[in-house]
Amino acid sequence: MQLIDxxxxxxxxxxxxxxxxxxxxxxxxxxxxxAAILVGHDGGSESYVAGKMKACEEVGFKSSLIRFEDDVTExxxxxxxxxxxxxxxxxxxxxxxxxxxxxxxxxxxxxxxPKKDVDGFHPVNVGRMAIGxxxxxxxxxxxxxxxxxxxxxxxxxxxxxxxxxxxxVGRPMSILLSQKGNxxxxxxxxxxxxxxxxxxxxxxxxxxxxxIGSPGFVKGDMVKEGAVVIDVGTTRVPATDTKxxxxxKGDVLFxxxxxxxxxxxxxxxGVGPMTITSLIxxxxxxxxxxxxx
Length: 293
Ligand code: GUN
Hints:
The chain has 293 residues and is an alpha/beta fold. The protein is built from ten helices and eleven strands. It has helices at residues 6-26, 43-59, 74-85, 105-111, 123-130, 139-150, 170-178, 198-203, 254-257, 272-287; strands spanning 2-3, 33-39, 62-68, 92-95, 159-163, 187-191, 207-210, 227-231, 235-238, 246-249, 261-264.
């Protein structure tokens, strides 16, 4: 069994990006610039956005944090989105979710210029991804694709079971893994809460992607010998022995499943560390006009 170490891979990718930014600057180019809009003071959002800003600094990007209080109006927020859409110095930006209830997240998302949508949440980017056009791909699916690629995990012709059909993980993963390419060319089954014979399906799987948000859902007797298991679960469960009072639990019962696997991602330290790095990858792609000319 080999652990897929998302921390190490994330650091490798960030070093490569930092070197590329140095080359861009040396050739007279400008620093890639990522902006983040943060509404309110939710602890989780604060720490995610701080991580994103820190990652920018690490790779030599410029970053801008734009804050609004919880009572910001939808109009004010949309005006800021418009301003960032039209600011030639900004290569990409994100609006950290969730937003307060009085603001329509879908509307805000739809107003982001797809060319600057480095989160890959805009319907244009999701649609382009689905038909195999160049697109910004959202952080978690892209992070998983990077891990599969960097660990040389064969996906062509393999049976994959994706557990979960969310717009941000399960569905895009199923599309990306079934597309032509490497990673890709897999035979993908999307399982969800109405799936009848999940255990039998999983026992046929060469690769399982667990993205349901149910701690320890995938048990040892659901996994075949030699399978690759990607655990996307990040549920916070109460803990008495941590400073924060909680710890992250994956969707996979690691102690039972890991001994059967050829490769497995731990939680924490597997898929999670790759997500912010994927945002950095997208921002660089935007600065280099790799997706849209
Ligand atoms: N909230 C939790 N994850 C994300 C993310 O990837 N992007 C944005 N914009 N908000 C989030």
